[in-house]
């Protein structure tokens, strides 16, 4: 919460500083994590962006459902007085695609190893459309929720290889212990009005991703007419953790 408030305060300060030239105002970067991760997965990217003068908010993604999660992110975006670059990782891509719709201050979308669904598509459908994904075999037994839903986690002993193979093992163990679950319903909720159809998009992903097949991400990037697509050799699903500079550089290009 402290990080969110400081990010909002910085964004407001940029907007009200009375700069002579509006072009001098840097966009606010809003980072949205995906399933089995949390906002700390952006730490390396945040350090670089803040050093380069960008106001940054690493939003907490509830991971309960595409529509409700998008509403939570959209509420943050609507309260920012500068232009915004929305960045989503994994399932977070589905969320930013919905959250940006109808928000005129969003100037760019950056998809980091992320889903970019068309109307009616789900994350589950897209991940199974091309070969190479092994997430299903790494999941733990679903956790029953009081509302009748089910939460999904990755088995901790399989987390490193499945999710973060190019991250040091000790760091991956911490990520596994602190992973945030996603509901089965969220991964099977269809997209409605994807903003990538009207807002410019950029893509970055690793060619060793085991959660979302690289072929699927190449397909989605091409379909969205990506302004630039960066494929990181040897990178896992958490390319922003293992290669924060590459990801931050692409975000800054989208912010220009």
From TrEMBL:
Species per Swiss-Prot/TrEMBL record: Pseudomonas chlororaphis
Name the record gives this protein: Alpha/beta hydrolase
Gene3D superfamilies: alpha/beta hydrolase
PANTHER family on file: AB HYDROLASE-1 DOMAIN-CONTAINING PROTEIN-RELATED, ESTERASE_LIPASE_THIOESTERASE DOMAIN-CONTAINING PROTEIN
UniProt keyword terms in alphabetical order: Hydrolase, Signal
Domain of life: Bacteria
GO MF annotations in UniProt: hydrolase activity
Domain AB hydrolase-1: 29-249
InterPro entries, per database record: AB_hydrolase_1 (IPR000073), AB_hydrolase_fold (IPR029058), Sec-Metab_Biosynth_Hydrolase (IPR052897)
Signal peptide: 1-22
